[in-house]
Amino acid sequence: MTRCRAVALLLFAACGGGRVDPGFTADTAGPPAEQAADEGRASPLERPRVVLITADWCPACRRTDRAFYPAFQRFEGRIDLLVLDVSDDEAIERSRETARAAGVGRFFEQHFGVTPSIALINQHGHLRQFQGNPYLQRSWERVFGEMVVADESAATAAP
Fold it and tell me: Closest Cα partner for 6 from 60, 87, 62?
């Protein structure tokens, strides 16, 4: 039981631990992120994005996946998903390049050693807090629903 609590606490910390990393926002945008990061701002995204750093050897990743993917399927097409595999050295290098190209290189470099690590990014390119139990499908459904509603609200409010 103590081991389960330790894993849950590590996962909670990996998912943001209820705090937002203020140094992350300028690095979360889409392909033009490097230019935006140089200017100290984030570029807008077409839709919210979830970045998932995972490994096939990670038991916490597999447990999170059982709740995450069924919930995510309901929101496919309204939320983008970027999965970065860190299962071995070759996968880490491929994921590092993918993360840089997608504008989340800083997040990857800061979190690739802690699996699973999850970033929830709104359409403005800012990190959103994860609040809930990452092992429960209903937590993910709520979070994804909030991301979509916020994105749709922002789209209707835009001039």
Answer: 60
